[in-house]
Amino acid sequence: KNQVEQSPQSLIILEGKNCTLQCNYTVSPFSNLRWYKQDTGRGPVSLTIMTFSENTKSNGRYTATLDADTKQSSLHITASQLSDSASYICVVKGGSQGNLIFGKGTKLSVKP
Amino acid sequence: GAGVSQSPRYKVTKRGQDVALRCDPISGHVSLYWYRQALGQGPEFLTYFNYEAQQDKSGLPNDRFSAERPEGSISTLTIQRTEQRDSAMYRCASSLASGRQDTQYFGPGTRLTVL
Fold this sequence. Notes:
Distance between the termini of chain A: 41 Å
Largest interface: A-B, 23 and 26 residues
Oligomer: heterodimer
Helix content of chain B: under 10%
Strand content of chain A: over 45%
Largest sheet of chain B: 7 strands, mixed
Largest sheet of chain A: 6 strands, mixed
Number of helices of chain A: 0
Order of helices and strands of chain A: EEEEEEEEEEE
Order of helices and strands of chain B: EEEEEEEEEEE
Number of strands of chain A: 11
Shape of chain A: globular
Radius of gyration of chain B: 13 Å
Strand content of chain B: over 45%
Helix content of chain A: under 10%
Structural class of chain A: mainly beta
Shape of chain B: globular
Number of helices of chain B: 0
């Protein structure tokens, strides 16, 4: 079954600290993996898209990694800011029909 | 506007009524996607179109749900005989193409409440 699992479910960190969010998937065949940021009450906004040949991609303070062999991805946030408080959703495109399969997200709270 | 728009933003209806939710994608975008999102959860795929062709409707929960995109632009998601469990945020997204590196741009969503 094609699934995307994220951990932790929620995370609280202090402003200025780093954190890493995890995503494991069992989607096959694999097309690409995306990380989205979703602020409360807003639609998701794309942070990165990675194919199997890319193992690291950065977008400002966000760095995503992908290990296509172990089917794991991580999103590392450096020097967190209050505005980073949001849900971070891992999405894998793949399967026989090329659908997008969403994880349940990690809710990040950055405290002053 | 430059982004994906959806209407209405909020819809309250009584159980058993039909509702139609509209999505206006970014001009020129080929692909259009519908998702349902329960509170505190990630989006759940419902269906998607390339141009006017419905490519995949495997995510539609049952035959009360249908979608169309007759001219390859605006799309309507229709829910017939609504039930309380249909209450959720319904989000639409569009992408320029359906290739491997397509980015989906999400609309603000329609919050549906079925009483």
